[in-house]
Amino acid sequence: MSSLSYYKDLIFVLTAKEIKVKYKNNFFGYIWSILHPLSMAMVFYFAFKFVMKIPLKNFTLFLISGLFPWQWFSNSVGASSTILIGNASLIKKVNFPRHFIPLAIVLNDLFHFVMSLPVIFGFEFFYKVSPTLAWSYGIPLLILTQFLITFGFSLIVSSINLFFRDMERIVLIGLNILFYLTPIVYDISLVPERFKTFFFLNPLYPVIEEWHGIFLKGFIDWRLYCISLFQATAIFLLGFLIFKKLSWKFAEVL
C-alpha cells in the first residue's frame, strides 16, 4: 500500500512539474492551449466553408470537437520524443518506473483537454445542441480510449528516440500526415467509398469519429467504439512491451 501511495504521489509530482514548466514565464498560460485549436478552427472554417463550400451543418462545432482531442494526442506524442532526454539526470539518479515520465506528459495534456471541454460546451450552447445522457458515460469512455492510444504511442516514440535520434523529426512529419488522414477538418462522408475501409488502419479515425458523434449527434456508435477500444488496447500493450524491453538500457544510453 505504501509503494502504491508513493507511485501515486510521484506521478502527481511529475505531472505537476510538466504543467509548471509549460507555463513558466507564460503570462496567458492556459489560454494559449485553447487559442491554438480555436485559431486553427478559424482558418479551416474559412478555407473549407467559404472557399471550398463544404455543405456541413454546425461546421465550427465539428472542427473544434475534432481539433481539441487531436491537440491532446499531437502535443503528447510530439513532446514524448525528447521527454526522456530532458529528464536524463532524473533517470540516472533515481530508481522509479521509467514509464511514469511519458505518462506525466500524457496526463498533462489530458488535464488541458478536460479544461477545454467547457469551450466545446459553449459552442454546443451557441449552436443550440442540447446535452444528452450519452455525455455522462460517452465522454469518460472516449477519454479512456484516447488515453490508451496516446500513452501507447508516447511510450513507443520516447523509448525508440533514445536509440534513433531521427525519430523526433519522423514523428513531426508523421503527425502532419496523420492529421490530414484523420477526418478532423472534413467529414468521412466526403471520402469516396473505395477509400473508407483504409481509414480503419488509422487508430485515430474511430476515436475522432466518436468525438464528433458524441458532440454533434449526442450518442456513441458502439460498433465503432469497440473497434477503437481494441486498437487502443493493442497500441498500449505494444508500447508498454517496447518500452519495457528497452528501458534497462536508458541510463547507459543517456
Can you describe this structure?
- There is one protein chain.
- By secondary structure, the chain is an all-alpha fold.
- The protein has one domain (2-253).
- The chain has eleven helices and no strands.
- Helix 9 (204-217) packs across helix 10 (222-247).
- It starts with a helix and ends with a helix.
User: What proportion of the residues form beta strands (DSSP E)?
Assistant: under 5%
Rounded to the nearest angstrom, the distance between the terminal CA atoms is 32 Å
> Spans of 5+ residues with little confidence (pLDDT < 50)?
none
Number of strands: 0
Individual helix count: 11
Order of helices and strands: HHHHHHHHHHH
Radius of gyration: 19 Å
Whole-number count of domains: 1
SS-derived structural category: mainly alpha
Residues in helices, as a percent range: over 70%
Shape: globular
Mean pLDDT: 86
The biggest beta sheet reads: none
